[in-house]
Queue: 3 jobs
Job 1
Amino acid sequence: MILQEYESARGMLAGLAYRMLGSWHDTEDVLQEAYVRWSAADRSDVAEPRRYLTRVVTRLSVDVLRARQSRRESYIGEWLPEPVPANALDLEEVSMALLHVMERLTPPQRAVYVLRTAFTLPYDEIAEILDRTPDDCRQLHRRATHALADDRPRYEPTVDEQRRLLLDFVAAARDGDLPRLESMLRDDVISWTDANGRRRAARKPVTGREKVATFFAHIYGRPDVTITPVDLITGPGLMVVVRGNHHLLTVDSDGTAITAIRVVANPEKLSAV
């Protein structure tokens, strides 16, 4: 019965934790700890196991986010969400772009935003989960929404559009075709690379059409570059192998051009893929 009740809620709990953490490794750690606590809990007073487990996973995720903030100072370069294969989790309406911009939120803001926006929980229930007042939670949600307003994606390309953009972009970069590359990019395009010092990579964002085009033509402009399409829970990605090093590439689009590029090159974040 203990395992059955937990397993019936595990998919939802995994989606909650991953939305909050943007890391599959952290998500698995949180789920394991949640099960340990559920197994040891006095369940005679638990009327709704799903609500109880939601509270445990949310609070554990907040703790992980706070601990990660203190460790972030030692992280080398940009931190990007960890890509996860599509078959690992049944998760809808989440994008790599949104997970990335949510990094600017405080742990309580992120918790309230996910619980309210993704799971449509009432503020009274969110307040109980976070041990705050409903008014506090409303304020946290307003602040989170305001913080994300300028950079939250306003256009979501279709799966086919994303795949085509990824393949065309890397093909142009491999050919060293700068005019073609630039034609695919918006003027204010930005590129982030997450390698944590484990691979040679740009430690700061590369911005602007010409700089981004030149940057990728330099990296991928080799005949031995190989590519493999990958389906992620956040949408299509492309695994690019350059000189034996693996990069997981994703892009955002405004419908006419690429607006953002994210490259995960940290091998620790690619083990799931």
Note: The CA atoms of residues 198 and 266 lie 6 Å apart.
Job 2
Amino acid sequence: MTTANDAGPDAGDDAVRDNPFLPGELALFLDRKGRAYLQTLTEGEEFHCHLGFIPHEEVIGQPVGGWYTTSRGHVLLGIRPTLGDYVRLMPRGPQVIYAKDLGNIVSMADIFPGATVVEAGLGSGALTTGLLRAVGPAGRVVSYEINGEVVAKAKSNVESVVSDTSRWSVKVGDIAEGIAEADVDRVVLDLPEPWRILDAAADALHTGGILLCFLPTVLQVHELVMALQDDGRYARIETAETMLRGWNVTRRSVRPAHRMVAHSGFITTAVRCVPPGRQGYALNP
């Protein structure tokens, strides 16, 4: 069995030296049909699939982006998984957020390096992983989860992607009963009834902070937006959804994929503001 890059000894040595697979990290193997296989590289273990097997030792220390031959002679591409790959293939507990929504949540909530973010609920940890990457080593993420049984699996999923989780804390409990943190930059809610948390979120957010809610149905969105409008402490209330369609590009044809990730949920954002009456004026007098 070989672990080739056949670009010549010099090119191979440079690739290994510059960007090798390391023990304990994730590797994604892709076959010629685009099927993906996620592995945690561990010395003494093997990757098995219907195409044969590859000992992990033949991948560790070899280049990311290299080609690896199975025991049955099939050649697989070995790369590091993106966050989107991991979210799609990670061990599942509760429903995870799709990568297309994860990217938009980080963008629409304006999650920035150094931010303090409170989220609920934790679920399988997909959103948490994206938030931790976005806030960086100077930021902080606090996750509230009402179901303590999902915490262990979520922590395992997050720690598979984020090596340093010292800036992350998990609290088991109902976030509607209050948020202990104060002066936070963002509150991100993946809950069925986020309107129950508007008081707690407003108390926790500094003025100008952003609340983001992810909901699957338009009826939930309607109830949320009405509650935000009635509250008086939120402005710039906006709702959007994202539909993602892949395309197949070959030498002889270009066409949309037969399947697409269409509706998965609605993203609603609102900015925490000073209630109009506090500054001696009213909206639409």
Note: Residues 218-231 form the longest helix (14 residues).
Job 3
Amino acid sequence: MKLPRTTLILISLALGLGGFVYFYEIQGKTRQEEIKEKQQQVFSFTEEDIQSLMIKTQNMTLSLERSSQTENPKWLIKSPISQPANDAIVSYLTDLLVKGKSDRILSTPANRLGEFGLDKPQATINITLKNQKSHQLLLGKRDFSRSSLYAQTDPANQQNVNVLLVSTDFENAVNRELSEWKQPIKSIEKLPPLTVPQPTPTR
């Protein structure tokens, strides 16, 4: 049975509309989510890319460098002392730098950075990669809900800058005493158990 011409036209229009919806709605939405995911990531390097870190807080400037040795510790404190670092503490920070994401990005004039605590940041993290490229992360104050932290990456002299909202875990990761950054002292080896002499049997 031959379909009427009008029916064929309607079928063609329906197929065309279906294709339009698929490519522009479904595929477009997936693409938007990929772009959004990329925009939310604070940095795009990996943990293995990081060669050294310099953390400046109000109390201290700490310099860390990846050890050239394959054994533990993986990180070394270079200043203010020279000593093996606590790998767990350093890994907590590097994990945040690599996997950390921004909940929101605010565009603001550079002369308003003081409102976010970024004119005098509570911490500055300088990151040097193995390929000699460098990045910087400034940590400002908490937002009004105190659930996020204002931050800025790789600041440049621009009229408008992007202010990120990141996890307060960044604040916890850098505001530490020097003793916490040091490799913990190994526990004292257990002494051999005392041998209690057995009583001599009496006849």
Note: The helical segments are 5-40, 87-99, 169-174, 178-181.
